[in-house]
Amino acid sequence: MSMPQQRTDVTETAVSEEDRLRADFYNFLGLLLAGPPDQMILDQTAGLEGDDSDLGQAITALARVAKVTKPAAAEREFNALFIGLGRGELLPYASYYLTGFLNEKPLAQLRNDMAARGITRAPNVYEPEDNIASLMEMMAGMIVGRFGEPATLDKQKTFWNKHIGPWAGHFYSDLEAAKNSVLYASVGTAGRAFMEIEREGFRMTAD
């Protein structure tokens, strides 16, 4: 899946610890959704510890599954979910979830907003930018300032409400329930819980 290209002339500054943790989790979801995890990523995931919150319990469950998952099994699962013969079980694109078709208006709107923020697609990637992995990576980059100055909470909210909020929760729920999901069922649970936290957090900020 495509990843947005980062600017290298910007240092990450003036970001709170809470926002760094948010960005880390967006990056983590993006990493798992961009391609099948290798042994190192599975080991790192297996080492995560959650608390008693919904997200914490989801992280604990994900760590437990990652501990017994082999890279070859993760790759088979990823391919069945997202690639398949012709197409995978799920189509993780904003355009598809919002319109029923690929490469529709939501992608054009995203590309306009990417251009306005100095976010460009990596040159060796040809997949539409509105896939879930890229959007998780973009959100992380905006929070910590990889595409310029760190985005204000209002700017984060605007981007999230437009490009992520309307569909990501549905996608993660579908990922939880997909027949080919084992490791990725736990990714779906964690992603859905995190989207709910983000939705509530943005809802509480003033417009």
Largest sheet: 2 strands, antiparallel
Overall tally of structural domains: 1
Query: Using DSSP, what is the number of strands?
Result: 2
Q: What is the 3D shape?
A: globular
Strand-residue proportion = under 5%
Kindly report the average pLDDT value.
Answer: 92
Radius of gyration: 16 Å
Instruction: Please bin the fraction of helical residues.
Output: 55-70%
Number of helices: 10
The level 1 CATH classification is Mainly Alpha
Verbal overview:
This protein is mainly alpha-helical and 207 residues long. The protein has a single domain, classed as Orthogonal Bundle (TorD-like), CATH 1.10.3480. Helix content is 60%, strand content 2%. It contains 10 helices and 2 strands, in the order βααααααβαααα. Helix 7 runs antiparallel to helix 8 and helix 9 (168-177) packs antiparallel against helix 10 (183-203). The radius of gyration is 16 Å and the shape is globular. The termini are far apart. Residues 6-12 have low confidence and may be disordered.
